[in-house]
Design goal:
- The structure holds two protein chains of two kinds.
- By secondary structure, chain A is of the alpha+beta class.
- Chain A contains nine helices and ten strands.
- By secondary structure, chain B is mainly alpha-helical.
- In chain B, helix 4 runs antiparallel to helix 7 and helix 7 crosses helix 9.
- Chain B is elongated, with a radius of gyration of 27 Å.
- Classes of the chains: A alpha+beta, B mainly alpha.
Amino acid sequence: MIGEGTQSTNQRRHTYVQDRVQVGFFTDPSVCIGCKACEVACKEWNEVPDDGFTWTGNSYDNTGHLGASTWRHVMFLEQDRPKGNQIVGSLGTGNADPSAVASAEAEDPFRWIFLSDVCKHCEEAGCLEACPTGSIVRTEVGSVLVQNDVCNGCGYCVVSCPFGVIDRRPEPLPDAGGAFKCTFCYDRQKSGLVPACAKVCPTESIVFGRLDDLRARGAERVRQLQDNGYSDAQLYDPMETSVRGIHAFFLLLGEPNDYGLPSKPQVPTIYLKSAWIAAFATAAISITATLLAFAFQ
Amino acid sequence: MLPATLCAQRSKAFEGSRAAYRKAVRKNSGQGEQNARAPHMNEQRLEQLREKAWQEGVVPGRGVDVVGGPIPRKPGYYGEPVVKPPVWTWEVPLYFFFGGLGGMSAVIALGGILFHYLDLARMAIWTAVIAGTVLSPILLIMDLGRPRLFLNMLRVFKHRSAMSMGAWILTAFGMSAVSGLITLELYAHHIFPDAPDQFLRFVAGIFVFASAIFGSLLATYTGVLIGATAIPAWFLHRTLLPIHFGTAGLGSAAGLLELLGHRIAALNFLGFYAAGVETVLLIWLSVAKHGKADHAIHEHSSGWLIRIGEVLAGPLALVLRFFGFIPWAAISFLAGALVSRFGWIAVGKVSGVDPESVFAAERL
């Protein structure tokens, strides 16, 4: 579990691409320290250009949101809700009276949560379905990849992502005009390396590995946290909606909406049927009405 | 490290957003730049705090949650968008307009050929080619982030992507409409003797028939295109949109041909039909409200574009046509069809940046 250090899957070479193993990210805010090493590593390895030095005023988060030039985004949530059974501050001597901790918490409940957000690499990916050029593909390891040299920048993936991840890169940034998002470091994975963000994460808040292993690990971590007083710990992996699960899934403390995540994300292809029925019906009725107009005049 | 010139270039590009930020601060303070504070913060407040500290010995604070500080209770994550708004600019609504106009012109051309209105058929197929296979592709290519790669649209055929289907519909429409135009013009000028000439008319009929089929889909698929997305204001109206876009295309085509001098009863009927349907859609849109989920349409100013468009294309065009002001009815309809296309894209941008719309749509 946490603290495997050099023994963790984050630091080992692998052959997942060659073996066609489904891989994923499990991101755990309960151990994230908000260092933003993942953001930096991602930008440096993938040579993602800077997209402005703006001050948001949103806690320590001046990244804002995922986009064409932001593929990892550390969120900083400030909530007036109690922590779990965590002993901090002046009371944090380890032997503090639990009731004193509880009363201090009840007086001024506050918690600061960090979560490194990333492209979810959906099982049913809206961007992949929408792409008219075939630029967006599914890789051997189950991730969703944009082929930059094929993308012609139509922008349809942007409105088709239920998580608002992918975006078109504006001028005057390098490689402008194309759609960009997290590549799951496909280039590194092909060479048996771990994605840059997971490799640099000092607390294993981001874990890279086999998807089935990670799901088991996530479920165990939720149990562990709930036993320790984090009653609102839950996994965010929408399997029951049309997205049918995500390859980069998260542990959340609190509700998905507080993290700017949709609680019931839907892949927009589910809307196609009713829309096309309306379109075909309108087309047929328009032709019929025109011919009738000519026939009966 | 990046070359210094590049850095300078980039920082210049974000000058705009910094200016916008400074403007926001100025607006918030209402007292000019050098004294930017939350609006309620003034000298009285400081005196109040001092008084409280003096009297009670303690001033209850809320940690980092200072009033007007970084925990404003905004929906979601600091009010950040949950989905991304469309990146499309003016080319796309204009393409929707010309695509609808051109596509449905081919339908009228088919009626003209079948019922022996040769001049109308020729004018209609010219309109179809100019609007649907010249202007539309130009606008579509202009909107691309990388216009030189536009042919990549035809690399794959994906029935689950409305954009891919649209690219193929536009291609098929272009080929059949241009072929229809060439054969119809050859027939109209009687270049060949009798027997081949009749055969030419038959061939022209086939091409125009094909362009009518693809044209009617060109006019309606755009509704599917924006209806099958993650933008709440769009997908909540996914059945209305194709009906609206298709009918607006038909009415625009009939109206334009009337303005070009073809004042026949069939086109007048189509004008009545399209304006009637648009009136029904206006009522439908004002009844089918989804609360916060599509409030961009019903409350925001961008929704007014849609309503103005629908009034121009619906009731106003209907009344004008009823009283015999046919050219005015046609102009009103064309203007309405254009304005409402811009309105739908504008609404998508408002709805896309609003996290509350997404959350509300989930609860529907």
